[in-house]
Fold this protein.
Amino acid sequence: MKIAVIALGKIGLPLAVQFASKGHEVVGVDVNAKVVELVNAGTEPFPGEDQLAQKLSESVSAGRLRATTDYADAVPGADAVVLVVPLFVDAEAKPDFGWMDEATAELAKHLTPGTLVSYETTLPVGTTRSRWKPALEAGSGLTEGKDFHLVFSPERVLTGRVFADLRKYPKLVGGLSAEGAAQAVTFYEAVLDFDERPDLKRANGVWDLGSAEASELAKLAETTYRDVNIGLANQFARFAATVGIDIYQVIEASNSQPYSHIHQPGIAVGGHCIPVYPRLYLWNDPEATVVRAARAANAGMPDYTVGLLEGAYGDLSGARVAVLGAAYRGGVKETAFSGVFDAVKAITERGGTALVNDPLYSDEELARLGFEPYHFGEPVDAAVVQADHADYRSLGPADLPGAKVFIDGRRVSSADKWDGVTYRVIGKA
């Protein structure tokens, strides 16, 4: 098959490489000329994705993958077009379709009969049918269901482990017609491989959910569930700390019963997915009070955690506080919705000076993010763990000379490593 992948970001590029690895001809489209240049050179444009460097180099060298900024080069004659263009959401849960609208308009200009179009960007329920179908038909002069088919198939992977996740989880599809859905099943079966999953009630593979709307909701539901679950865990943790209970012991005990799956509390919920997709759900269902309350609870955790620091340290005026981790989660060089921003803000509002450390970022990169870099061994009054980088698990007082308080926002350490330092973790008094 000839396949076009629109947007070669941290999900789109691994997808393009995966498709090419199955022997198909893949052309990636991206608005960033530098990304296109690097891809065509067989060089990964961003670090940290397991196996991407090798697989990308192999696909480009074999002539199965190339990149362009020109839709006219990639789209005409394609058997399938997959879009993974970012969708943004503001604080009021209003989606900003700007980039997706532009990409859809360009795609429509060059769309030819016989193409399967699949949107993988997470969307509010109804968007595929009510927004993308009329936009593609108007821009192309073609008729969906007759000249081309349109489906929604959400990405279900995490950056850093995309190739493993593509094999591990069922690929969900939902079409606007039975024929479109059938074509999508055939397409994804030809470009993906799946691990055996004896834990599933039906075989791992491509699952047709019956409609684009069901597929859209499935992605919103699985990510919103995680946000609500974490919000509940954070509420439990805040209460437990006030009555002298170890919440981690409680969670372990509760989860020993097969109907309880309580997640872990922590300083922040970050990334492109969990803090964002509940807002897309709220766009569809503004009366979802449980979802709204959980999102508010999680959004307040950085300030709550700095409050723990203030309670243990005292007045933060003039205090030098190291915030450990700019990334939203350990091992991933990405700051999307990272708790670092609100943690730094909370420290600054209390009169302290926030310094940021992250092993994945250079001083120059931290400075561009608006942070003053911190290096281990420099004097500091206190520290707050924001990301669970593996490097932080071995830290001790010698690494943070002068620190009087260590707030473990991710439970990467333990009190026995902090002799002479006040150690606090979320969910324990």
Residues 212-242 form the longest helix (31 residues). DSSP finds 15 helices and 16 strands in the chain. The radius of gyration is 23 Å. The chain has a mean pLDDT of 97.
